[in-house]
Amino acid sequence: MSASTTTGLIDMETLERVAPVIRLTAHPLRLRIIDYLRREGGPRCVTDIGEALGSDQSVTSQQLRILRDQGVLGARRDGCHMFYNITDPSVLLLLDCIREHHCCRSSDGPTAARSAAQTAH
Amino acid sequence: MSASTTTGLIDMETLERVAPVIRLTAHPLRLRIIDYLRREGGPRCVTDIGEALGSDQSVTSQQLRILRDQGVLGARRDGCHMFYNITDPSVLLLLDCIREHHCCRSSDGPTAARSAAQTAH
DNA sequence: TGATCATATAGCGATCTAGAGATATACTGG
DNA sequence: CCAGTATATCTCTAGATCGCTATATGATCA
Predict the structure, then answer these.
(1) By CB distance 3.0 to 4.6 Å, which of A12, A23, A28, A107 could disulfide with A102?
(2) Sequence ranges of the domains in chain A
């Protein structure tokens, strides 16, 4: 596997490529868009998404573009409408993680985790 | 589960709390630090980490602080040394995802994914 | 062709982030 | 206390991101 060098670590090249994708995806509204599309189970247009999530058309479109640029979403035009759908299923793992774990820690809160680490000094 | 409202979606409050943690973790060097600590299997000090990863002391310390603030890492002082370890195992899921999947898509590249979505219009 | 709906983009100011260098703090041993 | 080592923090500049408003593009229908 090209992701790991002889050191057993994921190489920087891979991390530098992947990190921005995760970073850009880890945005409240964008995560919500993905979650919404997942629940709907199929493509939805900008207006639907915006209305369902209570976000402005312009903002919604911007976020969708960002997600599409990252390859997370795909888009298909149908007349006046642009339908977006999830093209990268692996991003759902993030949502699962958030849902189950209340994600990536934070179940007890970062603050608690940190102060615990400090007192344990 | 408090993460989901009656809509079945993860609520914004949760996303707004969790997103920054993921976003801050999704940084090449920080991911590498976590990966390094995982491989080592135990606490390591700043110098070790910096040398292993070829990053400046100042930068290394800064990244470690960020990760500690997020509750991803914990720290323990032993004399002159500060030993860091992974306190939030859920962050390892991210690494696993990257390792296996070459992560979160990108195996074929975002560009390919996007143009594919476009041509499939 | 003109009106209208749906979507995309440009520009703006505010905020955040990255990394580098210099410096400060903290601990150890003499 | 002093010198040396290890770590943390401050400061600064450049660049990225955020959400907003206004506007542009593109498609449909009368």
Answers:
(1) A107
(2) 12-88
